[in-house]
């Protein structure tokens, strides 16, 4: 018995200094104090102080943390560290200066975050070198500022519905500049000196930085008219004017439109409704590739030397994984030989039983009327807007046809645009159809304002020399404009 202790003393070493006996009063807030620059003793002191006031303060960074508080830290370095910390979603974190903490201690509760509470940051040195023209920026699909650009693009769309061209373009330009930045914006200081960011845009960004959301866009999203117009224009063949007409008639859903006997849908809209579910589903890269093989084979069967290029978002390296349609450009090496080719391709697709819808437009190219000043206008090349049937069997094994669970019809409908050009217009058409839309807009604006030239999908015209500049490749066009070549995957402006 002598050897058995009377008392067993259990000593618990608590490695987790977050263990706290204080009662937590503010459950929605979990603070993490950054030790860097603050020092460990000040950190301990501030931790005890906050806990005594009912704040939950964690010593370890985890997904529980909501408010990261730092003293004299540069926002850029802080965010870089947070991104590398293995947290699930750093974008939901409030990253704050010590002033938020001291204000909260004084008030005895977590105070509302204001701009002055955001961590200090200086404008990135690169700001001065960001051009107002997308063709002088490099924009990949890696967008570090999606939380802003999604909102700005939605506001642009709303302005478009309201026919407010100025604000629409301003929001689109701002989104485009933010997409080109090499890192995420975490404070308003970081956008100082950047072009195309107006007061409205900055106000929206400030809201997002402080509250993590935009009340302005939420207001737009909950607007009945916006919802209806967005829904109606999502149907192939329905533009903002038709959508507005339907809205004014009191119609709010697609069902109501189909049930309304006085509404006469045109052929395109009928197809749009018929294949709505399929064509509002994104097209994958694998599906685009399968379509390319089908169309290439078809064109080669008719004309073995025909040339087919994938354009739009799927163009070899523009890098998009998904698109709303698949765009192709067709030409022949010899001038004039392209005439009639597109119609024969369409016939052949019909014979194969995969043509679900086709709207063909003949060429109206008239070089005496080019280039057009209205760069939003549709070009004059011969083209067709198609809906094709893509069979599961035509897909690569690894690609797979996208299926809804429980749906195994074995095929899907896909929107395809097919454009045919004479070979001497091919480079211009390729550049124009590769996009993005904002990149094209800025390329044309740059040509006009900076070079006294006129560019569109058909030609480049030098207004001073009064002559058309020939091009056999996109590189030629960039060279005429005195621009460094921008690869397709850098044009996601
Ligand atoms: P899309 O609308 O297909 O865009 O037009 P996208 O980039 O492929 O993206 P998705 O399909 O929505 O995923 C492709 C490009 O063709 C040009 C546009 O400028 C756009 O950049 N285009 C489109 C024209 O030049 N003329 C047209 O009539 C239509
Ligand atoms: Mg496309």
Fill in the keyword field for this structure:
17 helices; binds magnesium ion; 493 residues; alpha/beta; DNA polymerase, domain 1; 37% helix; binds uridine 5'-triphosphate; Rossmann fold; four-stranded parallel β-sheet; disordered N terminus; single chain
Q: Order the strands across the largest sheet as they lie in space.
A: 6-8-11-10-9
- The name CATH uses for the topology of the largest domain is Beta Polymerase, domain 2
Assembly type of the chains comes to single chain
The portion of residues forming beta strands comes to: 5-15%
Q: Which second-level CATH architecture of the largest domain applies?
A: 2-Layer Sandwich
How many helix segments?
Answer: 17
Subcellular location: Nucleus
Protein name: DNA-directed DNA/RNA polymerase mu
GO molecular function: DNA binding; DNA nucleotidylexotransferase activity; DNA-directed DNA polymerase activity; metal ion binding
Binding site for Mg(2+): 325, 327, 417
General description of the model:
Gap-filling polymerase involved in repair of DNA double-strand breaks by non-homologous end joining (NHEJ). Its main location: nucleus. The protein is an alpha/beta fold. Helix content is 37%, strand content 13%. The protein contains 17 helices and 14 strands. The strands form four sheets. Strands 6-8-11-10-9 form a five-stranded mixed β-sheet, sandwiched between helices. Strands 2-1-3-4 form a four-stranded parallel β-sheet, with helices on both faces. It is elongated and about 80 Å long. It binds uridine 5'-triphosphate and magnesium ion (MG). Magnesium ion binds next to loops. The site of uridine 5'-triphosphate has 15 residues, from helix 15 and helix 16.
